[in-house]
């Protein structure tokens, strides 16, 4: 098993408790495809901007606060860095696809490309 496969497996195992049986996700199953990973401290401003934007768009992302995960938080951040090449937070995923951080997310919004991604992810999730 390659390092990337091991990281992906580890990443998925941390999210498993948040899967389809989770009360959080059963209300809005499409959230499985849209995630925002952020610590509350340090990158608060950037995380806040992305959260505010999603709220404005009517999206309710699954937010995983790395600093509330205990020792698993820094481990998950390292795994995310190896998988995405991004060491900063927030680390945004939509439809299972890595979008980037705050700047990338805002850039997609300004170009009119964020809302279609959110709609597509929601549509795909409700079909499957």
UniProtKB/TrEMBL annotation:
Transmembrane segments: none
SUPFAM superfamilies: Thioredoxin-like
InterPro entries: Glutaredoxin, Glutaredoxin_subgr, Thioredoxin-like_sf
GO CC terms of this entry: cytoplasm
GO biological process: cellular response to oxidative stress
Start and end residues of each Glutaredoxin domain: 46-99
GO molecular-function terms, A-Z: glutathione disulfide oxidoreductase activity
Pfam families attached to this UniProt entry: Glutaredoxin (PF00462)
Protein name per UniProt: Glutaredoxin domain-containing protein
